[in-house]
Amino acid sequence: MDRLAPAETPLSPAIAARWSPRSFLPDAVPEAALRQVLEAARWASSAYNEQPWQYLITRKENEPEAYAKLLACLVPFNQGWANAAPVLMLACARVNFAEKGNPNRWAEYDTGQATSAMAIEAAALGLQIHQMAGFDAAAARTAFAIPEDVTPVAALVLGKPGPADALPEALAQREMAPRSRKPASGMFFAAAWGQPV
Ligand SMILES: Cc1cc2nc3c(=O)[nH]c(=O)nc-3n(C[C@H](O)[C@H](O)[C@H](O)COP(=O)(O)O)c2cc1C
């Protein structure tokens, strides 16, 4: 299913194609495609080139126990649809700089950038990523022995989007609802705060 962004200006194809499905086909993600998606994250920019992101990757087919363990960390609403996806990941941020150990206040920002790069690369391959805030970070930390100085930031699923009608009715409606964004006038200011571009 395609859900191209109804953007006000032309966008590069992968940015326009990226969206967050909840219906996924069960097909495994080919290894080359998974590698390509991860490589996109590796090449994201970061403050001081610290590259503070770390990802736990679980494939339903290859690591079913780890997949189930991570799935159990999601809130019930997300478990309900995310369990269809073949790949479930946890995006984490190392919150201190490696060299001096001082706090890196851009760690989560940079992790988001890396995940965004992944999502765009996935869209370029006909795959999609759906990010989730709805998970229990403490449970994930315990389940996977995540070190203290690493913060679980978001859970993600990756896979090929499936048909909306594979979802329960209410979710199917949301899957097909028009995509929307706030107006640009409240986001981009010209020279003075609050002055629309
Ligand atoms: C950090 C983050 C957390 C999100 N958490 C959830 C979530 O827990 N459950 C969910 O169904 N969608 C979640 N989403 C998906 C957003 O609702 C979705 O990105 C937004 O509605 C815009 O839609 P689009 O990604 O299709 O453009 C999350 C997205 C982001 C970036």
UniProtKB/TrEMBL annotation:
Record's keyword annotation contains Oxidoreductase: yes
Organism: Roseococcus suduntuyensis
SUPFAM superfamilies, per the entry: FMN-dependent nitroreductase-like
CDD domains with a match to the protein in the record: TdsD-like
Key word Oxidoreductase present: yes
Protein name stated in the entry: Nitroreductase
Record-stated family: Belongs to the nitroreductase family.
Keywords per UniProt: Oxidoreductase
